[in-house]
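Lab notebook, bench 4. We co-purified these components, and the gel suggests they stay together. Before we commit to crystallization screens, I want a quick structural picture of the whole thing.
Request: model the full complex, all chains together.
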Amino acid sequence: MGALTDKYCIVGVGETPHMRPSNRTTLSMACEAVSKAMEDAGLKPSDIDGMTSYQAADSTSSAHVATALGMRLNYCLDILGGGSSTEALVAHAIGLIEAGYAKTIVCFRSMNGRSGRRMGGQVPGGPIPVATAEGDNQFNMGWGWTTPAQRFGMSAMRYLHDTGCTTRAFAEIAVAHRYHASLNPKAIHRSPITIEDHQRSRWVAKPFRLLDCCQETDVAAAIIVTSRERAFDLRHPPVFIMGGYARMMTENPQWNYSRPVLHYVAGNYGWKRAFGMAGISHSDVDFISCYDAFTFTTLIQLEANGFCGPGEAGDFVKGGRLKIDHELPSNLSGGHLSEGYTHGVQMVIENVRQLRHRADDACPGWREGRHTYDRSKGCRQLRKARICCGMAWGWENMASCLILRGIAA
Amino acid sequence: MAVTIDYTKLRIVPDPDTREWWEATRRHKYLVRRCNRCGHKWFPPNIPACGKCASMDAGWFETAGTGVIHSYVVVTQPIVGAFVGAVPYVVAIIELDDCKEDDGTVTRVAGVMTNDESEVAIGLPCKVVFEETGNPNIVMPRWQISGSAEKTWRFTE
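Here is the predicted assembly.
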């Protein structure tokens, strides 16, 4: 077990609605998310003394949010980062609290991801009228190859070639995550879909169809980390941080697409570290979250993190295995594919709610942890939610993981 | 079939590390970086240091501009305005023939190939061609299928 296993907890989570468009500033949305996370934890602004955030040169800063909310911080920092940064900021918060730089830290991401700056450079109304290709973009924009769908599609295509997997495996993920969104009042898309719906949806960047791609939304989300001693005094049962890895890279990162095997992604280098730190094995995991910018990113992380062998993920997900009440429920809020796009924060938030046994579903008693487990009545709380493995993706050669447990684990 | 790209909607901005690369494309030469200390080759050329020995003495290697398709995507939804009239088009990752190193390291590059997905398959040989853009400072490298191969794979769903 890691030296700090179970010493730190996630005690507050909160987010704005998923909007498109928000017609709001990233500062306004960040203030709402941070306030909701504080309210969830039972903390006042004066109880928070550290704040961090990540962004892609598209958002407000910790200092702005703290000033707006009347906080005097002992630590603030904003980093440039994409997917897999949430788990890294949690790891960073543990280090800061352990070293005495701060006691209770809120981490946020606020983005107008649909109405403002979109991933891959597309402008709100559609294609970029005149594109300027500088830096790395000199070597992708000129060949019309800029978006995550177009980039990750290369690894997905090679995966299909190498393994014999078909896009019906991608569909399994879209269907499972949409089913969970159907049980989430906050989700953008709540109508269940079938494998055939996926197969009939239009192409975006072959081998990806529309239903392989996540939603783009305007949203802010926040989580609060503090020590176990403080956590016990707060509103909800604490969720303990057991272990993880953060912004783990592959070898040979000089160019992602010159790596020997395009789909040998960063999680392969990290999962033994995370499970070793947590002191658990895969069979101890009750449910997972798995960064679903695309169906494929979930698929490939399952094998990267040792839930199945290399090339086996297509078979592994068959038959609804990732659905609630099946073997390994994944992304119980509906994830990026169906709930909305927070750049990764929402997976941690949902995992915390599940581990507290307080999923915010249609059950009237959810706030007190009373659930019907009747999916037909909109319950999305797992019966058995004790240990969760959250896997996050930045791109093929960048990944994070966060293993959490609830108080009853 | 050639992809029609509207280069008036694309502004390439070379920098101190890439200027020579873009100058070479004007002379119809396809360069990759080569480490002057250990000989390692890499792409893209804006990376200023050798990934094997960390030397910053980065020179150039003129490739034959031939390779094999390692993977590809078919873009049907244009994001860059210059490509609005170009969809669908195939972008491929090409493993260069003459950049293989003794320890198995390879150099791959990316480029636009064709509108016709049925021409393309993983495993097919291809070669670089150079396209005038209307801007005398920028000549764009593109890739074409140059032959056949015994073992190929094509996405068929």
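The first strand of chain A starts at residue 8 and ends at 15. Worth comparing against the SEC data before the next meeting. Chain A has one domain: 8-116+215-405.
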